[in-house]
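Lecture 7 notes: from sequence to structure.

We start with a single chain of 214 residues. Read the sequence below before looking at the structure.
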Amino acid sequence: MLLEFERLEERDPRDLQRVTQLISYLVRHQFVHAEDRGGASMLETLHRSHLATLVADYVDVAGYRLVVRETEGWAGILPDVERIGFQRLRIDETIVLLVMRRIWEEALQDGEIYAYGSAPTTLNEAYLAYQDIVAGTRRAALSVAAFREVIEVLERRSIVRLGPIDVEAQDMELTVRALITTVAGDDFVASLDQILARPVEVTEAAGDEKGEAL
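Now the structure, written as tokens:
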């Protein structure tokens, strides 16, 4: 592996820099999207098969597989669950992911899917949808500020995108990307529905319960 990087550096130092930048970004954020700052140029690196192979081989050593979805405008690394463990989300974070998945599905059914399969909504509308889901359980809902913090975590991973705040409306545009169907797949949704149907235990109230894994 190191020899391949050394050979690339000898042939084209700029290509090595592009590969290194992309790997570093994926390790920190897991996903990269064409509509994010610098995202399009990083995705272009994967258009060159020998560079894409180098990236894929590198993350494979760490127990991940490279996934590229050009029609949805993203690439990312997903854990090989047969080889490595992965971090599980807190139940509140998992519920927010479920809300994002359902918002995307509703937009698809209504024909309101835009470029790269993205679904438009707003932060306030998403929070109302979140409250509706939590209201059917015995769980305490996150405050709107805490809900926004979870959304911002998802934004750093390119799963959603927040627009600038509308001071007058006290709201923000929120775009749910098609990537959500990969992060929160059908098995994820089914498992979470079962979790939500269970009574809340004392440890859950203390925030100890874990939700689905990514």
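Strands lie at 31-33, 64-69, 74-79, 88-90, 119-122, 160-166, 171-176, 210-213. Keep this in mind for problem set 3.
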